[in-house]
Amino acid sequence: MPYTSHPVKHGFAPALTGWYLASHRDLPWRNTNNPYHIWLSEIMLQQTQVKTVIDYYHRFLQQYPTIQSLAEAPLDSVLKLWEGLGYYARCRNLHKAAQIIMSQHGGEFPKTLAEAEALPGIGKSTAGAILTFSYGQKHPLLDGNVKRVLSRIFDIEEDIQQAGVIKRMWQHSTDLLTESDDPYHYNQAIMELGATVCLPQNPRCLLCPVKEFCSAQAHGTQHERPVKSAKKTTPHFDIGVGVIWHNGKILIQQRPAEGLLGGLWEFPGGKQEPDEAINETILREIREELELDVTVRELITTVKHAYSHFKITLHAYHCDYISGTPQPKACDAWQWVTPDELSQFAFPKANKTVLEIVVAEWHKQNASAPQRIP
Length: 374
Ligand code: SF4
Known about the structure:
It is a single chain. This protein has 14 helices and seven strands. By secondary structure, the chain is α+β, with helices and mostly antiparallel strands. The chain has two domains: 9-224, Endonuclease III, domain 1 (Orthogonal Bundle), CATH 1.10.340.30; 236-368, Alpha-Beta Complex (Nucleoside Triphosphate Pyrophosphohydrolase). Strands 1, 2, 3, 4, 5, 6 and 7 form a seven-stranded mixed beta sheet that branches. Helix 1 (12-23) packs across helix 11 (183-196), helix 2 (35-45) crosses helix 3 and helix 9 crosses helix 11 (183-196). The chain is elongated. The chain binds iron/sulfur cluster.
């Protein structure tokens, strides 16, 4: 049966809200109506689990307690605080949006959906969540959790990534919310259901407070929902990078502000070409991008890492500087730093693993070096 023919789910909203009020998790952003705090939590929670977010959330607010303090902070420092949370475009957009709020909204998070949605990094569902949770407005949501719940409640047989299906799911989300006289708790509840009960792999239907409204559960299709078209195979790249040493310092470069991992620091290097040995990749990339000559020494480590659309294996080698002055052709800036100074810069995860090994080795060597007698 096409899901569009299912009847309206009368009673869904009160049942879900009642369950939430009786049994929800106590999370820090649920004890405030400060739009800045709620906005920050909504952005951090995209692609990241609650247990990871909590510490970052507290540290972030301690460092930048107001939108103004965030807007005035250098992007480098904000990225450093975000380091390890991934999806760094979220952080750059947050910073940019804080500056827009200061310059165009008098430092106050906007109160209309249109204005909130116009800010960088804030889509319709995130805007709706912020305005509901901070200003008590009534807006439907459609984030990843809600899409999964609705795909099961309405037993949606089509690919939920199709534009037409997304449009109809917005309508379902709106219809279900219409019956609620408590949008704050209803919206918290539908997100909580997706996060704790209607789980992606193993939905806990026996414990579900809205199982009698769930068409997928009735048809036994809940494990087949949501339907998503098969993903293309994720490409994989081997990346060679050099930790270039010169007079006790290491060369690091800053990625261009826009694009993947924009604004973060890294060790120079790049993608391995077909039929190229990895040490040749490192020599070539460093010559092409920085116009430096180096020698490649021993392997430091290899690190595997997955991004949203591709995977990499990072091969990191110690290198020695020979000649040249770094030319920032493919980066925004470069610096020679001591191993101890590396912790002041924000690095993407795979590079961070490399630098931790380098710093640990360096400390070990320094500790075992003979001490000079004064
Ligand atoms: S009954 Fe199962 S599939 Fe349906 S909403 Fe509840 S947990 Fe999800």
